[in-house]
C-alpha cells in the first residue's frame, strides 16, 4: 500500500480553473502555513485519447490521496463525466471530503453536487485560512464520525470564522 499524503482537488476545469490556480499560488507564496501535497503533481492526465485512459491516470492520483477537496462552482453539480466520477471514487475509498463553496457560502447550499449532498462532508468558503484549518482537522474528525456511524454534512460556526478574522 502506498503512503497517502496527497490532496486531490476536484473542480470544473473549464469554469473554475482560476480558483485551483489561486490555491497553488497560496501554496507557493506561503507554503509554511498553507501547504498541501497536490495529487495533480503525480501525472498530467492530459492523454485525451479515451475516457478510460484519463480515468486510469486519475486513479494513480487517488491511490496517493488522503483527502478530496471539491471546488463547488455554479456548474459543478451538473458535471458527470469526470467531476462526479472523482467524487464517487473518493466516496468509495472513504476519503474525507471538503466542499469549498466558490460563491461565498459557508454551508451546504443549492450548488452542492447531489452525489455528496447526503454524505459525510464539511463545507467551507474559499479562503486559505479556513481551507487550511479544514485540511488539518477534518480528516481526523471525519474518521471519528465515520467510526461512530454518523453520516451528515458539517460546516464551521461563525465563531470559527471570526477566530480567523473572517
From TrEMBL:
Taxonomic superkingdom: Bacteria
Extent of the signal sequence: none
Transmembrane annotation, as ranges: none
InterPro entries: ThsB__TIR-like_domain, ThsB_TIR-like_sf
Domain Thoeris protein ThsB TIR-like: 8-106
Name of the protein: TIR-like protein DUF1863
Species the sequence originates in: Enterovirga rhinocerotis
Organism lineage: Bacteria, Pseudomonadati, Pseudomonadota, Alphaproteobacteria, Hyphomicrobiales
Amino acid at each position: 500500500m502506498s503512503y497517502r499524503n496527497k490532496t486531490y482537488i476536484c473542480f470544473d476545469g473549464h469554469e473554475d480553473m482560476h480558483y485551483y490556480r489561486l490555491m497553488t499560488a497560496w501554496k507557493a507564496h506561503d507554503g509554511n502555513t498553507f501547504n498541501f501535497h497536490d495529487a495533480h503533481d503525480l501525472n498530467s492526465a492530459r492523454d485525451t485519447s479515451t475516457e478510460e485512459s484519463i480515468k486510469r491516470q486519475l486513479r494513480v492520483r487517488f491511490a496517493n490521496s488522503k483527502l478530496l477537496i471539491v471546488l463547488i462552482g455554479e456548474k459543478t453539480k451538473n458535471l458527470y463525466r469526470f467531476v462526479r466520477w472523482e467524487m464517487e471514487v473518493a466516496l468509495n475509498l472513504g476519503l474525507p471530503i471538503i466542499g469549498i463553496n466558490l460563491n461565498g457560502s459557508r454551508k451546504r447550499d443549492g450548488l452542492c453536487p447531489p452525489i455528496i449532498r447526503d454524505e459525510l462532508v464539511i463545507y467551507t468558503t474559499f479562503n486559505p485560512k479556513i481551507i487550511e484549518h479544514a485540511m488539518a482537522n477534518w480528516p481526523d474528525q471525519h474518521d471519528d464520525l465515520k467510526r461512530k456511524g454518523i453520516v451528515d454534512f458539517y460546516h464551521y460556526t461563525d465563531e470559527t470564522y471570526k477566530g480567523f478574522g473572517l
